[in-house]
Specification:
By secondary structure, the protein is an alpha/beta fold. 40% of the residues lie in helices and 23% in strands.
Length: 382
């Protein structure tokens, strides 16, 4: 037997106990033992340790099979998880307890005067969200960029944000674990564990906004790909006629399927020429023919992206997010018909239920997993 096996088993057991108490507040020690198939002495050892550490709290006695049993839950002051959704126009931050309750949310215009001004703003936001009796345990940041090993590779909507070692910068500044992910990836995690895809293991979120991208969760785990570029459907080529043209950082699909592209599909001479996407969508809902034609062409390009994504990843559900979710009533028929026509086992199609909170809740799930891993690791070497 490997000399590390007992520690690995204890770590696995500790993680399962942590998840059980988090997901089922009110569960007793005896119920944990029965559900996980772990001996009662081991459960008592793990649970009592987390009670002493202030991670679990005892909620009081209740009847359980004829004998009183002490119910357990995550302590409200067990720790604070801080999540930031960094965008080119606004930055949102939220503080969560380990039990999932959000204590505070702050939204500010992004200070884009310089690279340093953005970093200063992030530090200030973390400090404000950390002002609590509960110790901060972890930070997660969603960045509008490729991310590799905690480095923001290129965020074109932020000033001089290329190869920014954001994870190291924040860990050096605050002294606790930091995770950096692409913002759409975090939103996909949020929709999978807390939103439209809750209860599913294979979910892809397509975020339609100024750009277009996808976050992919398979077997309950985020798919990142090389340099964090998995899900970059902006670079799909939806028409062979586009193959010989370079679309640069925007990508071929993004040039015709992101929100700003909608008005570009209006017929020549349309009175709506030059209007923004919201005006075109309003006109389409009012039955205006040129707007309906534009939406039909736009949704056809979106359908190309969704069919390709479904064929490659085989998700149980495709979720439409970003500002494009507000057009779901108009684009759903085309998207659903295309998926049914071209995918042998088409995924369910849904609109985001979390909206702008998707990345924040994804960051919470991400932080919680990191903290539980760290706590379980401590048990593994105890």
């Amino acid at each position: 037997m490997s000399p590390n096996l007992p520690a690995l088993l204890r770590r696995r057991n500790a993680r399962e106990v942590l998840h059980t108490v988090h997901n089922e507040p009110g569960v007793s020690r005896a119920e944990i033992s029965r559900r996980l198939g772990i001996s009662m002495p081991t459960i008592l050892d793990i649970v009592n340790r987390y009670v002493r550490l202030g991670i679990f709290q005892e909620l009081g006695d209740r009847a359980s099979g004829g004998r009183p049993a002490t119910a357990l839950g995550i302590a409200p002051d067990a720790g604070r998880l801080i999540v930031i959704d960094l965008g080119g126009t606004s930055v949102r931050g939220a503080a969560f307890g380990m039990d999932g309750r959000r204590s505070e949310t702050i939204k500010l215009p992004t200070d884009t005067r310089s690279r340093q001004s953005v970093l200063d703003q992030l530090e200030d936001l973390v400090e404000r969200l950390s002002a609590s009796s509960a110790a901060a345990h972890a930070i997660a940041v969603g960045a509008p960029s490729y991310v590799q090993d905690g480095v923001v590779i290129d965020a074109p909507n932020l000033p001089n944000w290329r190869n920014v070692p954001l994870q190291q910068h924040l860990e050096d500044r605050f002294g606790f674990p930091v995770s950096i992910e692409n913002d759409v990836d975090l939103a996909a995690v949020g929709e999978t564990f807390h939103g439209a895809g809750k209860g599913l293991s294979d979910v892809a979120l397509v975020a339609i906004g100024t750009g277009i991208g996808a976050g992919i969760v398979i077997d309950g785990k985020l798919v990142r790909g090389k340099a964090g570029t998995a899900g970059e459907i902006a670079f799909l080529v939806p028409d062979p006629a586009m193959l010989d043209t370079s679309y640069g950082a925007k990508g071929a699909l993004e040039s015709v399927a992101a929100m700003p592209a909608l008005a570009g599909h209006l017929p020549e001479g349309s009175a709506l020429a030059g209007e923004g996407p919201e005006a075109v969508l309003r006109a389409a809902r009012n039955g205006q023919r040129d707007a309906l034609l534009a939406v039909d062409t736009w949704s056809s390009y979106l359908a190309v992206g969704l069919v390709a994504l479904a064929a490659l990843c085989g998700p149980q559900m495709l979720v439409i997010g970003g500002s494009g979710r507000r057009a779901f009533d108009l684009i759903e028929p085309r998207l659903r018909a295309s998926l049914s026509r071209h995918i042998p086992v088409p995924p369910r199609l849904a609109v985001s239920t979390l909206g702008d909170d998707a990345a924040l809740l994804g960051g919470y799930a991400y932080c919680l997993d990191r903290v539980m891993d760290d706590l379980a690791a401590l048990d593994g070497v105890a």
